[in-house]
Design brief:
Elements (H helix, E strand, L loop, with lengths): L12 H11 L6 E10 L3 H13 L4 E4 L6 H10 L5 E5 L33 H7 L2 H16 L8 E3 L9 H13 L4 E4 H9 L11 E4 L1 E4 L2 H7 L1 H11 L3 E8 L5 H6 L8 H10 L3 H9 L2 E3 L2 H12 L1
Parallel strand pairs: 1-2, 1-8, 1-9, 2-3, 3-4, 5-6, 7-8
Helix pairs in contact: 1-13, 5-6, 8-9
Keywords: Carbohydrate metabolism, Hydrolase, Magnesium, Metal-binding
GO biological process, one term: carbohydrate metabolic process
Organism: Mongoliibacter ruber
């Protein structure tokens, strides 16, 4: 039987909305979306992510549409359509042993691809080569692919945060595409300030911008120093009032993922299984409770945002 896990720690959406409608004031609330990236990367990622959302503390995930296991992920999404799943807009391909190109016709997005027809391995090379109009073509192709399957993404976000690292024009393109499809786009507060300073806000509907006060993610040096469990305990202890997102990656440390990630010390199959174990552990609930963190997802975020703007 499916259960709609809008929060894990017992605070229902109805209760949140009721409190908000009475107080109109949430300055002391610590809202946190625990978000698993890279759905569609592998079968391992697909099954582990659904498990983490069904049985653990993960409240949201997003699909990498260019990846080889996207259709398998889409079927799992269809079978679990009450879960909070968005699109992880992907413009890079970081794995040496596991390559992908774009979703759009390669002839239309040649500036996003290397000589072999694959996406570039990092944000720096992508930003140096990609043309803005071709980026937009690819972003729209990824969204259209999901919509044509009859699925409705709860939000958009950016693989490796590449879309947040470039110019104000790139940010505007990302937000304008989200607005055109009426999908909420995750945006760090610093990026919001960037487009605000560039004068783009009068061309955008704020209803489709999901501004995040703080974006958390595991740090490689901290991981080496203290290990994954203590790293996440420290992050949960640091969560401040406002809207926060913690980005994680959930898969199994199996042969499939070992082959994909064999070229890296960090972010590999062991790292990702450690993410899975921590956020499906009963011990982790304790840190959520102790820090008075309210777990939400993008559906709830949007409801609260709508109430605030009334």
């Amino acid at each position: 039987m499916k259960t709609n896990k809008l929060t894990i720690i017992g605070v229902s959406v109805v209760a949140l909305i009721l409190v908000f409608s009475i107080s109109k004031f949430f300055t002391t609330e610590k809202f946190l979306i625990i978000h698993s990236d890279d759905l569609g990367l592998s079968s391992s990622h697909n099954s582990a992510t659904i498990l983490a959302m069904r049985e653990g503390l993960v409240t949201s995930a997003s699909l990498m549409v260019p990846c080889p296991k996207r259709d398998e992920a889409i079927e799992l999404w269809r079978e679990n359509d009450d879960l909070d799943i968005g699109i992880h807009l992907t413009v890079t391909n970081e794995w040496e042993n596991y390559r992908w190109g774009g979703v759009a016709d390669p002839n239309l997005i040649s500036s996003l691809l290397d000589d072999e027809g694959y996406m570039y391995p990092n944000c720096k090379i992508f930003l140096e080569n990609a043309e803005l109009d071709e980026i937009e073509i690819e972003l729209r192709a990824q969204i259209e692919y999901v919509l044509e399957k009859g699925l409705v993404p709860t939000h958009l976000d950016a693989h490796m945060t590449c879309l947040f690292r470039g110019s104000a024009e790139l940010l505007f393109t990302y937000l304008k595409v989200a607005q055109d499809y009426e999908i909420l786009a995750m945006l760090p507060k610093t990026s919001f300030e960037q487009i605000k300073s560039a004068g783009y806000l009068d061309q955008l509907d704020l209803k489709y911008i999901g501004i995040i006060d703080q974006l958390y993610i595991a740090d490689e040096q901290e991981y080496d120093k203290k290990g994954m469990e203590q790293l996440y305990i420290d992050i949960l202890n640091e969560v401040k009032p406002g809207f926060n997102v913690l980005l994680i990656h959930t898969s199994y440390d199996d042969l499939e993922m070992k082959k994909i990630t064999s070229d890296t010390k960090h972010w590999g199959s062991q790292w990702r299984e450690e993410d899975l174990k921590f956020f499906t552990s009963s011990k982790t609930y304790k840190y959520i409770f102790e820090n008075n963190i309210q777990l939400i997802n993008w559906k709830v975020f949007r409801k609260i945002k709508e109430l605030y703007e009334q």
